[in-house]
């Protein structure tokens, strides 16, 4: 309907009560979901309108740990020279125990039900703007919430059988003080560790691990499988890097280099990897790091005096600091 199209294009902003500043645009849309925090139903609205009630305050309702009221101006907010629209606003109540100086940042929506559409007209400040309540501004809302002409015409669906329904959603934005800072550290201090695996030929276990060492604030260990593991079993040496304490200290990103040293010609075997470690994924590496035939070839110098030398270099690691 043309009339309805005209009314939906009228845009006036959330007004600060008692402030005659210039209004900006607001957002208007329809939705089926009912308001989350409060519904205010009026029966026999015409009788209320005839009483010339200037302002009606609803009962208190709670949201975000604070108490609120809906304020309806059936004939418009005359203090702001509104006489051809319903004005609807949100009032924070019971502030007597608030500190002398206080403020609340709030995102709120006000509603009126359309009986024909079966949906709620939703009115809120546009562009995601946040409303700020404080001691000198305890009521905010919309001067021109809905024109009286549109409201009273039952063909538009807002006032049907002399009954109407308003609503509110109020979301208080409160910083909890919790957060985290993620830093990606390139080449942290003391980022290198060497593990000399002596008596290599006598190892009978499927896997052996190095001593635990510390790089950054995290504890690490190298783990190798002399006869291979998974896809490298019986054909390759498997090598991986473990990290500890993820359950306590949180996830960890690491970019690293693993090395098997050639002790004769310095033709080392090395591979780089990168991984986000966690409490459930604390061990990562290569099932086929190098072929066993190359490892056991004495001319290639990987095992000298029955000693294998393994190195790890941490190239990048994350540091997460939580704050409260």
From TrEMBL:
Domain MATH, first and last residues per copy: 35-170, 190-314
Gene3D superfamilies attached to this UniProt entry: Apoptosis, Tumor Necrosis Factor Receptor Associated Protein 2, Chain A
InterPro entries the record matches: MATH/TRAF_dom, TRAF-like
SMART domains (alphabetical): MATH
Highest taxon listed in the record's lineage: Eukaryota
PANTHER family: TRAF-LIKE FAMILY PROTEIN
Protein name as it appears in the record: MATH domain-containing protein
Organism (species): Nyssa sinensis
